[in-house]
What does this fold into?
Amino acid sequence: MEMATVRHRPEALELLEAQSKFTKKELQILYRGFKNISFIFFQECPSGVVNEETFKEIYSQFFPQGDSTTYAHFLFNAFDTDHNGSVSFEDFVMGLSILLRGTVQEKLSWAFNLYDINKDGYITKEEMLDIMKAIYDMMGKCTYPVLKEDAPRQHVETFFQKMDKNKDGVVTIDEFIESCQKDENIMRSMQLFENVI
It folds into this structure.
């Protein structure tokens, strides 16, 4: 007796259109892309949702020179907002909606959530170091100029000098947002993908 695969059916496009900042046409394009990427990399994953291992494998294709496993784990957790161990099309759309079309406040809140690994409302030096190491690992050893071994730790120290306003050893969401909004480079990077799709 063969078991039938339970396929994930996305919410009605009208509902997603109301919840996100995408048009119905853009959602149709995103859905085709989401299904194609899942199919191309993992034909054995016809359910319409992507689990963490699949997500890591897909993400690794974009960073073949390094090890993106840890960063992909953090990113997966940021997209998996209901913490059910999978990213559905709806999860994907809502994350992209914020990243591509959200307000500065929404984008910064999403980034804070990514960095706040244990979701306690604070970014610690240890969490930021884990993220920085994951980013450096993902970029690979072939960066130019060659990075020093202590580069992630130096990056974290700079981050905390800038953002930990009350010097209590953690960064709150308010400190994070306020500091980011005062940084021209961060504000410019927030606008990079606004007209994508």
